């Protein structure tokens, strides 16, 4: 809802009150008058506790930003957005959906559009509880607002700074060390590179708990935009295909009709670095019994291959000094005979189908780095004479090794990749990349 529409709605409410106060001189039927009276007489107590946690910034793009937040009752939701921390002259956006806003009793999703690239904005998210005094006639409560937060949109003029976390797997204490660190470092954008749940997502509430309100991590994405790139565990459970009701897909305007199903892939600039998101899918082939005959990961990977080729035709990607691609499952065979994800035994250690389809395209375009997860272990594999890109895998849940935050930042004339051991606070490794030739 823009400001003009909002004013129109408020004007309508005022007119309604006047009509009820006048109670005469109108052509209303008595039954309609009673409905108006009942509507106006209903007092809705301020719904404290309506917001369940701080908002989560997501699906960032140079000209848009998604914001989702959890609520405890049927609500409409809003975001007020401004170019100043005092939120003076805000622009108001309503829960997405037209003609009907996506009101919901658990999750509100608001999409901010028409934004400028590389710009800092301030916002607050709010919800109004909806009640029905008369039949379907709907009355909103006073709006309850979050704290004021801020974000920076991506773009060629944005900071050349971002990070990757992965395989958090519901270990919320370990995760809190990662999310605290990137907030302390002032990282504006974090790729959450898959395997967020461990248990199955059989209900929408399972998804809400994992992605929107992870315990001990309140506000983890209120001032840092999250780019979700799914891992194999993100596809499991009978509600996994409802993820979009909680974590917003990318806008259709970001891709062509051919690629309309590819609503999670991303390619945009953060300053001097182009980020490209690729989805490796499940860690077992489509004909594995676990998949029940209803998955299409091989065609999905093939479709992404065509999408990937086209990204390098975009000037802002082709001209980027640095390109970093993200996959959940690694693209390099980590040891001889490591499971390639194409057999019915065990599960993928690396993803051969994706490596065969995407690897040569990444090399042909001089991509310097692939950031992956899945193996729960920090590992660095350097580029080779026939492969332009190095691969770094991040650490994950558990005690075998350590959790990581992989921070990427352009410093001087290099892309510096700093691997933080978030269990101890130490720096586990540093890697430097020169700009692409071209
Ligand atoms: Fe994992
Ligand atoms: Fe995984």
Structural account:
The chain is α+β, with helices and mostly antiparallel strands. The chain folds into three domains: 41 residues, no CATH class; 110 residues, Sandwich (Immunoglobulin-like); 273 residues, Purple Acid Phosphatase, chain A, domain 2. 20% of the residues lie in helices and 27% in strands. Strands 3, 4, 6, 7, 8 and 9 form a six-stranded antiparallel beta sheet that branches. Strand 13 and strand 14 form a beta hairpin. The site of one fe (ii) ion has 6 residues, from loops.
**Proportion in helices:** 10-25%
State the low-pLDDT regions, or none. Answer: none
- Averaged pLDDT: 94
* Protein structure class: alpha+beta
Name the CATH class of the largest domain: Alpha Beta
> How many helical stretches?
7
CATH topology of the largest domain: Purple Acid Phosphatase, chain A, domain 2
In the CATH hierarchy, the architecture of the largest domain is 4-Layer Sandwich
β-strand percent reads 25-35%
For CATH, the homologous superfamily of the largest domain is named as: Metallo-dependent phosphatases
Compute the CA-based radius of gyration. 24 Å
Shape: globular
SSE layout and pairing:
Elements: H1 3-22, H2 30-41, E1 56-61, E2 64-70, E3 75-82, E4 91-94, E5 107-113, E6 120-134, E7 137-140, E8 144-145, E9 149-152, E10 161-165, H3 172-185, E11 189-192, H4 204-212, E12 225-228, E13 266-270, E14 273-277, H5 297-311, H6 315-318, E15 322-326, H7 352-364, E16 369-372, E17 379-381, E18 390-393, E19 404-411, E20 414-421, E21 427-433
Parallel strand pairs: 10-11, 11-12, 14-15, 15-16, 16-18
Antiparallel strand pairs: 1-2, 2-5, 3-4, 3-6, 6-7, 6-8, 6-9, 10-19, 13-14, 17-18, 19-20, 20-21
Helix pairs in contact: 1-2, 5-7
Bound molecules: fe (ii) ion (2 copies).
